[in-house]
Amino acid sequence: MRSDNTHQEGKPDAGRGSRRGPDGRGPGGRGRQGDGPRGRNQSEPAPASSDEVQGWLAGRLPASWFTSVPNVQIDRDEITIVGTLDLTDIPEGVDATAAAQGRITRFREETRDERIAIAQDLERRFERSVAWGAEAGKISALFTNQAIPAMTRLRQPERQVLDTLVDAGVARSRAEALAWCVKLVGQNQEEWITSLREALNSVEQVRKAGPK
Q1: pLDDT at position 15 over 60
Q2: Which residue did the predictor score with more confidence, 83 or 48?
Q3: Fewer Cβ close by (within 10 Å): the C or N end of the chain?
Q4: Residue 186: which H helix or E strand, with range?
């Protein structure tokens, strides 16, 4: 998600990164803490494409929320929905950044209950937790998203790379250094990764068109 300012808040409206369920009133009842809807020792969630989720949202979201179809990002654990808010009614001459921040705050508070209900519907249908965000002008805010551990085994050369980043103060731990490396690859190889995703989406469409 691109913006000049991105703010992530730690108290989720929906999701399973903590022991709260999507309604914020206790365990979601599907999987262990941080394990996603099914739990890591169970089967992977059903495939879901951003087009499919966007289509579902087009019929489910109130028309007044966003100026266009929201951006949807999907992985095995989470669906992130970020919509663009209308600022055309903001008077000229006011601080544009402050106005955008205020509009995002208002949207978050006024739509909280309905977003929770939509998130619950999405979680049942697509077997993933849901994160919400909004953009207004040059400001982007992500209200909630999960930080999920990804276990891996590294040999000494790879560990030395991480330790160098830690020793240099770039990261505080190997885990943080690994996350930094992943983020850097995502930024520098965005075109290549996008091509991979598009190819995977094409494969999924062919699978869906095949015999049941």
Answers
A1: no
A2: 83
A3: C
A4: helix 174-188
